[in-house]
Design goal:
Blueprint: E1 3-9, H1 13-23, E2 27-32, E3 35-40, E4 43-48, E5 59-63, H2 69-77, E6 91-93, E7 98-104, E8 110-116, E9 134-141, H3 145-154, E10 171-175, E11 180-185, E12 203-207, E13 212-215, E14 221-223
Parallel strand pairs: 1-4, 5-8, 9-11
Antiparallel strand pairs: 1-12, 2-3, 3-4, 5-9, 6-7, 7-8, 10-11, 12-13, 13-14
Length: 224
C-alpha cells in the first residue's frame, strides 16, 4: 500500500499555504478559492476549508532518507520549533528501528519526519524538502476499529504484523517492509509529542490500488 494523495480540512487556509510553501518550501501544484495541493515526494497533500467545522487537526508523517535523520533535524530546527516529549525533541523507535522528530503547522497538525532504517533509501544529496519520499503515515480515527479493520482488509490493507486489531491502541495498517501506514485508532488517544487527542475528522486517502478511504462530515467511514 502507498498513499498517493491525502485531503485534510483546515480552518486557516492562507496561513497553511504560506507555511508549507514559503517556510518549508513545498511546491504548489494546484489551488482554488477553498483548497490547495502540494507535492510531497511521490504523494500529493491537499488542504481544504470547504465545509470545515471547528479547528481540525491530524497526525501525519513523511518518510525521509535513512541516513539523514540528524541533517533533517538540523534543517527543520532552522524553520520550526520541534515538539518535545519528556524533555526530548526526538524519539528512537528501536523496535522498527527508526528515529523521528515532530512539529506543528498553523492548524495544529502534528507532523513527523521519520527515518526508517533498513526500509527508507539513503541519499548522498544535501537534505532539502525535496528529500522527502512520500506521506508515510496518516491517522484514521473511527468509532469502530474492528469493523473498519475488516473493511480495510477487503481492500487488501492489513495490520503490518498480521496481529489481531486492538481497540485500545494504535493499529498500523500497511506493509512493514514498505514503511507506509494508515494508523487506525479510536478517538481519545493522545498523540505523542503533543497534548492533543485523536478525534474523528473528515479526510480522504487515495491509495495505489485505486481505492479511496473516506471519513465524511458525519464521521462515517467509506471505501470507494
Amino acid at each position: 500500500m502507498e498513499i498517493k494523495s491525502l485531503t485534510l480540512q483546515t480552518d486557516n487556509l492562507q496561513a497553511m499555504k504560506e507555511f508549507y510553501m514559503n517556510k518549508l518550501g513545498f511546491h504548489l501544484i494546484a489551488e482554488n478559492k477553498d483548497s490547495f495541493q502540494i507535492q510531497t515526494g511521490t504523494s500529493i497533500l491537499e488542504f481544504t476549508n470547504r465545509d470545515t467545522v471547528g479547528k481540525p487537526f491530524y497526525h501525519f508523517a513523511f518518510n525521509i532518507p535513512a541516513n539523514q535523520f540528524e541533517e533533517a533535524k538540523f534543517w527543520l530546527k532552522n524553520k520550526v520549533q520541534l515538539l518535545t516529549e519528556d524533555g526530548e525533541d526526538q524519539i528512537n523507535f528501536s523496535h522498527l528501528p527508526a528515529h523521528a522528530i515532530y512539529f506543528e503547522d498553523p492548524s495544529g497538525n502534528i507532523l513527523e519526519f521519520i527515518a526508517r532504517y533498513g526500509v527508507n533509501e539513503e541519499s548522498s544529496e544535501p537534505f532539502t524538502i525535496n528529500s522527502i519520499f512520500h506521506i508515510s503515515e496518516i491517522g484514521l480515527i473511527v468509532d469502530d476499529v474492528l469493523k473498519v479493520g475488516k473493511e480495510l482488509s477487503k481492500a487488501h490493507i492489513f495490520e503490518r504484523d498480521n496481529k489481531p486489531l486492538n481497540e485500545q491502541s494504535l493499529n498500523f495498517m500497511g506493509v512493514r517492509e514498505i514503511g507506509i501506514f494508515i494508523i487506525l485508532a479510536r478517538p481519545g488517544r493522545r498523540w505523542i509529542f503533543s497534548d492533543k487527542y485523536s478525534t474523528i475528522l473528515p479526510l480522504e486517502i487515495s491509495v495505489n490500488n485505486g481505492r479511496k478511504l473516506i471519513v465524511n462530515h458525519d464521521g462515517e467511514f467509506i471505501i470507494e
